[in-house]
Amino acid sequence: MRRLYLFALVLVLYEFTAYSASDMIMPGMIQVVKDFQVSVSFIAAALIFYLLGNCAFLLLTGFWAERYGKRKIMVSGNFLFLIATVLIAFSHTIEQFMALRFIQGGGLAIIAIGYALIHENFNDEDAVKLIALMGNISLLAPLMGPAIGSLIVSYLSWHYVFFILAAISAISLVGLYKLTPEKHEQVTTVNLKNVFSQYWQLIKSHKFIQGVACVVLTTMPMFFWIGESPNFLLYKLQLNYLEFAICQVCSIGGLTISSILIQFIAGKYRIYTLIKLGGILIWIGLFISLIGSGSIIVTVLGFFIYTLGAGFANGCIFRLLMSNKTFPSSMVASMIGFLQTLLFALGLVVANKVGSYFDYNLLSFTLCCFIFGVAAFLSIGNYNLSYREREWE
Length: 393
What we know:
Helices cover 82% and strands 0% of the residues. It is mainly α.
């Protein structure tokens, strides 16, 4: 078990690095667009291309994991991420930058395989604790990433963001190579056509799609914040990098609190109760942000409450989704990641268009987030009813 927990620790390190790659550069994107002499619309595009790269690799990652083994795919994905991260720092045009961001995003896809390994090797209570910690750390990247990125670009150039990410990625590569569990009885005759047929059967599952919708709706406002906050905090409100970092830390700090609390309450309260609590906090937090949109302080406070609720709900919902015994865990995790990422990217495109149209007005931003918050609250409530009596396994 000690080796498994060490693997989980290394996976958390890689996950944090991969998600930070999407967020740490965001405060530096002001420098990037100035260096390449392009419009500020490319700021959100940097995140969109990263997510699309993840999306493009996810379904094939599930297939490759079943055919060649999860360990090989984990190590290969980390290596791809490392190479792309180094090359981005030496890009000379915005086209090169975006193309490499797409490839870099492909390295993010292997995290779904890591989640599958966690669910295969741990019981309900331990899995929810680890997934809550890992999931919230992945979402904690928006908290730490921009703060660290702000410090880096304040004293150095944006290139050093990628140098630092590459160094950490190299450490996780060694760890995953040594610690990733490997089953020797791996299947080597997986047919791509059959795999995509199984994916189609999974998509047709109403309960699966309903659960994915809950996760997407719950997390979407957070991705709006990641993609758009440099525009309305740095560009519109003219905050400095330190103020930007403080806003990031406070707004998404609820994830830190929830990841700590869930270590103590998982197994003591029903999964149904934790998800219900999360849904209520999501609605309340985004409502506060909307009515207080005239003040960045109130907006940040509302986001803190919202992220606290998202932290409680997402780990539990993800465990319920991964409890599907009909399909291989790597395929379930890959399809969840694919649908999530595709919808996040589309949502960010829409949010960027809306933000640009209203000149990144805080009211328009919080209104978009609140609409998704209401949809998340209703969706979670409906989905959660099926698991009212679900016991910890």
